[in-house]
Amino acid sequence: MKNKLINVSTALLLCLPVFCQKGNLFIIGGGHKTKELMQQLVATAQLNAGDYIVFLPMATTEPDTSYYYIKESFAEVCNNKIVNFNFTKDDINKTSWIDSVQHAKLIYLGGGDQSRFMDIVLHTPIQQAIMDAYKGGSTVAGTSAGAAMMAHYMITGNQLLGDTTYESTFPKLWNGNLEIKEGLSLLDSAIIDQHFIARSRYNRLLTAIAKYPSLPCIGIDEGTAIVVHGNSIKVAGTSQVIVFSHPQNLRVTKDGYIKFDDVKMSVYTKGDVFKLK
Description:
- By secondary structure, the protein is an alpha/beta fold.
- 28% of the residues lie in helices and 28% in strands.
- The protein has one domain: Class I glutamine amidotransferase (GATase) domain (Rossmann fold), CATH 3.40.50.
- The protein has helices at residues 2-14, 35-45, 63-75, 95-102, 114-121, 125-135, 145-148, 202-211; strands at 24-28, 52-56, 81-84, 106-109, 139-143, 153-159, 178-182, 191-193, 217-220, 224-229, 232-237, 240-248, 251-252, 258-259, 262-269, 273-275.
């Protein structure tokens, strides 16, 4: 069981997309975004007077409300135009919107349900436009669901075993209990979880690292962000970021419980910098 678990993870990692990363990712763990955090986002994006921001609200069922609040947040820190493109499956090829996404200096992904967003965007011109903007030097930001979907291996939050009723925390560390779907693949060297400390999602992320032991698993708390440029990550915001990596002697019991002898755990706060392989 152990060999099968690790070999599958390694094989999948070798298939991940690789491209030159020129832009930045600003990945927020959800919750309240302070004015200081929004100022750091605008500074990271290096917005000039003529630049505009694209907001993509497809993760939520209330896109207009989400747009209203993000406009309020940006209005406190910049005067740049912010446009709202609520794509559906019927307009994934809408040329004018796609072009605007591709040439935006800052793209912001709203919260809600990450699977809902990816069901519309995955393997479409929208995803390609986001990737093209990022490769061209733009900043892609996201909060909550918008954080989870940054990675290639996207945590959906759903359990696959036992009582599959949604819970913020996983009651057991079971092999095969974590649903993973394909995300935007902007970050292919880590897995992201959000609302991490506020919702005690340790069991969920430990399940993730057992599934993908070669990838660091990053839990971002509310009001906090990681700023990713290449393989360098800097922490911003008011709380903490927790990283699990390098599980040792990973195995699974006959009852399906995950076990390992050791795992590296790091805790970071505002201003700290760490590297991804």
